[in-house]
Amino acid sequence: MRVLRRFRHEDDGVGLMELIVAMSISMVILVAVGGFFTATLRAGSTNTRSDQNARSASVVMNSLTRYVHAASLLPKADGTYASAVTQADGSRMTFTAFVNLDGNATDVPVQVRYSLNGAKGIVLDRWTGTTTKGFTTFPPPTQPPTTSTVLGGAVSSPTGDGDPLFTYLGANGTPLPTLADGSLATTQLGAVRAVRVNLELGAPTADTPGNTHIQNTLYLFNVAYGTNSGATP
User: Fold this and answer.
1) Which phi and psi (to 5°) does residue 99 adopt?
2) Are 91 and 116 in contact (CB under 8 A)?
């Protein structure tokens, strides 16, 4: 009988306290593993967005580099030259450039504008001009462009560092003074010799995880230093 009582006691199973302890340990392990798994997924998602934004930012910067480097004074029939830049503020820039659009040997003048749309995407607008006796004129930028392309976005302007998308530099390499709204006065447009591009791309809110931030200074190589609007180079 003593032996049977011992076997019966050993078959009683897991007690309530033991079950509570085991469940508590299991919950701790599940919470730890779940938190690690969530953090891993979040990091992977951020890395994916960063990679996509970096590629998109590269496309935007390559386009800006091509056209800004080709910015040029526009010859006028009276023998003078119009300034290359015709509109300039922190998130919009309009200028004339001579580029090869169709693969021919001759560069043709085109009016170009970079700006942000309502969704903070960066847009490239282009206007073809009317050429008469070798001199080209363009419609005002209030007219619909010949072509319009959204290059990428969204863009944060100002960036997390507080910089606008475009900063305009004079011949001495320092930023040109702006009006209260951040634009250049008409009298300053002819003084632009370079554009500092501060591009933060990904989300319209600055410093969002996954945003790509790159900066580059683009020079107007075809604009002679020391020239102004209306002067000959």
Assistant:
1) -135, 160
2) yes
Q: DSSP state, 144?
A: P
Q: How far apart are CA 38 and CA 26, in angstroms?
A: 18
**Number of domains the chain contains:** 1
The verdict on residue 28 lying in a domain is: no
What pLDDT, in 10s, does the model give residues 24-79?
777 777 776 666 656 554 555 556 777 899 999 999 999 999 999 999 999 998 99
Task: Give the mean pLDDT of 111-121.
Answer: 96
Give the domain range for residue 203. Answer: 46-219
Nearest to 204 by CA among 161, 158, 145: 158
Task: Give a yes or no: residue 10 inside a domain.
Answer: no
Sign of the Cα torsion 48, 51, 52, 53 reads positive
Q: Look up residue 22 and give its DSSP letter.
A: H
Return the bridge partners of 137, or none: 130
User: Is the residue at 1 inside a domain?
Assistant: no
Q: Has residue 165 been placed in a domain? A: yes
Distances (CA, A) of 27 to 35, 37, 211: 12, 15, 36
Q: Give the tens place of pLDDT for each residue, 67-82.
A: 999 999 999 989 999 9
Residue 99 has a pLDDT of 81
Q: Which two tokens stand for residue 70?
A: 């080709």
- 63 is written with which tokens? 């386009």
Give residue-wise pLDDT tens across range 129-167. 999 988 999 999 999 999 999 999 899 999 999 999 999
Say if residue 60 is exposed, middle or buried (CB neighbours under 10 Å; 0-12, 13-18, 19+): buried
